[in-house]
Amino acid sequence: MLQSLxxxxxxxxxxxxxxxxxxxxxxxxxLAPKPPHFPAKAKRxxxxxxNGGVSHMDTFDHKPKLFAxxxxxxxxxxxxxxxxxxxxxxGWEFRPGGRCGTLVSDLFPHLRELxxxxxxxxxxxxxxxxxxQATLAIHTGSFFFSRPSIxxxxxxxxxxxxxxxxxxxxLSAGSPYAGTQIxxxxxxxxxxxxxxxxxxxxxxxxxxxxxxxxxxxELELGLANAFNRRxx
Amino acid sequence: xxxxxxxxxxxxxxxxxxxxxxxxxxxxxxxxxxRGQTESFGWSCLVGRRxxxxxxxxxxxxxxxxxxxxxxxxxxxxxxxxxxxxxxPIAGLLQDLKRTGxxxxxxxxxxxxxxxxxxxxxEKGRGHHSACFSSWLAGAGVKGGLVYGATDELGATxxxxxxxxxxxxxxxxxxxxxxxxxxxxxxxGRDYRLTDVHGHVVDDLLA
Lengths: 232, 207
Fold this sequence. Notes:
The structure holds two protein chains of two kinds. By secondary structure, chain A is α+β, with helices and mostly antiparallel strands. Chain A has helices at residues 2-7, 13-25, 64-68, 109-112, 131-140, 150-158, 214-231, and strands at residues 44-50, 94-97, 102-105, 118-125, 168-172, 195-197. Chain A has two domains: 2-48 and 131-231, no CATH class; 62-117, no CATH class. Helices cover 32% and strands 23% of the residues of chain B. Chain B folds into two domains: 1-61 and 72-105, no CATH class; 106-207, no CATH class. In chain B, β7 (150-151) and β8 form a beta hairpin. The chains are: A alpha+beta, B alpha+beta.
């Protein structure tokens, strides 16, 4: 990997020799692309997460009887958290989208047109009614304890296709429920951690070098690497 | 040292990712973006496509935060502003991925942490509801145009083809060619999985 980068002169010579030495000394290149367990079409994932709990009956799950039952108080089983409350009708009309004709509410008129490309699941189930736990779970599979994010697991399983960028990138304007735990590597090696990008004028903090000449940074990295090897 | 090395490379390559000047007006419009705009969910979606085409394995786009989000206890009408912020950008992303051929080998996932109650909360809001909610998949390896599973007539509970969070994860890993039972990491004396001891791949969603 490094040899090929050197051909393209992406690495500076001094840093290159240090890194080559490191690469030779390590047995496995942990972020190298790895073959999957079995052939698959998908090579990457774009995972979109909407914070807060999107109402299914107001968006993608059409419930005509709920429109009709507006205001009635009913006992409803099945894990409903407020069983004896007044029912509230959905606030938006539903219309068919695409050739498949899947009903989607007026909250998503653009996505509705693309329902032929979308595989909709109306039967998702979680186990906790609190934001923090449920958000942690949809990202890590764990409701209560910090565990590696699904993005970290995928990075661990498949490696990366571009060593100039992190294998797992998170674009997040604010801090989500459960904070950085939702893109944390936890016990997986640190290079599988999600790198957060904040929309705005400076998406990644400190991307600019403190000292302009790259050669100075190269010396710093070389020194750190030397210490690191002595430590190992 | 891996992290330092990646950071070193990012100084050149990452800068290019956020420079949207090479994107056409037509592309910016797909995402609902004005030229020069660096905020909004549309910006995240477009940068997401640029990360995807540069080989980033897993890209997460977070809509909202713990303080500004879809948690409408008091008035459901506020769902409108949250939907408006993401509807066109996500639709633009899907169209752009399709146009550039990336959708062939990219899996797009949309989800939230739970649904909301059929019963009222506060004046005109709804409460937290983990018993059922909706999510979707698009792109590589999934059946487009499919509706899977169902809730009861009021949307209170799942009555058909339940997809638990663990099943969702197992299916996403499967779509990437990973067996959720074999993707393990030994820590603290035992092998861990994303799905712990749970999870079934939902075969009916696979193209």
